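Quick one: structure for this chain?
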Amino acid sequence: MWKLHVAVRKILSTPLKTTKGMSVVQYVLEDSDGTQWLVYSKNQADGNQGYTPMQKTKGLHFHVGEVVCETAWQQLEEGEKPLIAIRTNQRILMVDMDYNILASRPAVVLIGGTARLTTSIQWLGYTIVYTCSDNRLYYMLADSRERPLGSLDIHATEPLLMSILTDRVLYACKHRDHRLTQVLSRALVPLEPLVLGLLYAPEGYAKNREQLMMKIIRQYAYKPAEEDPSGPRPVGPGYNAGVTGELIRELRKKGYLSVAYAIVRSCGGNKEFPDHPQIAPEVKCDLAMSLHRLDDALQELLTDSPQLMEYLKSAEEGKPFTALLPHPRSTLAERLRALASIAALSGDYNTARKCMDLSGDDWDLMELMSL
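Got it. Here's what it folds into:
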């Protein structure tokens, strides 16, 4: 039994252990002016100490009227430094183990005169996922930006996150008669928040980011090509599920072109999922051009034109085939001519020839063939 000489409002568990295997806890202390502090037990700094709280000056001081509701610790590989998510009645905080605030957002947001309250938090990679009173899921990045992740059951009251799995979210909420609690699940496509979280992870965290992002893409981008080709139609979200153009723009801005292209790359498996929107072919083409993969850029550009793809394939094999070529003034023809110019300057005359043929640029094609 430990005798405490301060006002304690909460005792919170942590995943931390001392060298002797003792658990480290956190205390929510109340100051004389009513403000709260979050501190570790003394054994966090010295394993020979007990479970009494540290001095307030070594903790995190909250605003006047701010009350700590819950904390959540990031789950990482052994030896890595975890971050802490804190939900108060005023803010959502992302802090490090030394209680330095890395990111924050208001826990209460006014939308059209209605208050949107944050009700629970969980970690998803390097993002904090939280439920709100509008029955929606959001996540916060380490640069304090908020992005939507999905919606919950429209009848869910006071939803509380229980667990975030690889393909679904488990949450609890009040039953309709308000006397029972029900546990529900919701499908989740976590590819975008996981990659964005790594992209904006705090400095000093998430080493080998590009390698980790590629690992996430291989794990979470559904691959129907690995299924039995003679079996039933694959089920699942399909390639690029949950990915928006915002993620592609962020990856390009940060210089991770290979990662962006790995996400949006064209694959025959995409045809298995005609109901799911894909990233625009022009975006894929631009990424392939940036990586100097010009033949791939041409294939990306013709993703929505299977007849033109068949036309090129038949021409390569010397087989007769007719196809309706794009109008010389169409957007597709203009992009084909631009790609042809880049391919010619790069010495990729085969790709340049294909682009000129499809765009109807016969004069330049004759000049190229005479080289």
